[in-house]
Write a structure and sequence with these properties.
The chain is mainly alpha-helical. It is built from five helices and no strands. Helix 1 runs parallel beside helix 3.
Length: 148
């Protein structure tokens, strides 16, 4: 799983979530038109993730999860969360769960993604950041929260 990139995992969860809901005949608790609120979260989540990736592109730094980081980015949305792309993915996935009807099983995918991001991807990245940038990263980590 180490080489499974976060956007690929997100895509797999987006495909699997409605499939599992359908296969398990999971009840839906959020009906039309209220489920459309999920679309707002999907858009906001992807906008947050895109803002993070755009800053990486502007700063001409590496965005790939398993490659060595080459620049400590502390501007823009990175002033408020150390992981805007993961946070955006979680918000978007949460919105998607609401959009498809809010079946309880769909929220398990959101929790699973959050835990995988937090315990696997982010810990790996933070270890690399600390090794690469040392005290500068530790100061940044002390100022800015992991999620919010």
């Amino acid at each position: 799983m180490k080489k499974l990139l976060p956007p690929i995992l997100l895509f797999l969860f987006v495909i699997l979530m409605p499939l599992v809901c359908w296969l398990t005949a999971a009840p839906h608790f959020i009906n039309y038109p209220f489920n459309l609120l999920g679309l707002v979260a999907v858009v906001l989540g992807f906008a947050l993730a895109k803002s993070g990736s755009t800053i990486f592109a502007q700063e001409e730094t590496n965005i790939m999860t398993f490659n060595k980081p080459d620049k400590l980015v502390e501007i823009g949305v990175f002033q408020y969360t150390r992981n805007p792309m993961y946070l955006g993915f979680v918000i978007a996935l949460l919105g998607y769960a609401v959009l498809i009807g809010g079946a309880p099983v769909s929220f398990l995918f959101v929790i699973a993604f959050l835990l995988i991001a937090d315990r696997w991807y982010i810990r790996f990245e933070e270890k690399m950041m600390e090794q690469t940038f040392g005290n500068a990263y530790l100061r940044y980590r002390g100022r800015v929260r992991r999620w919010l």
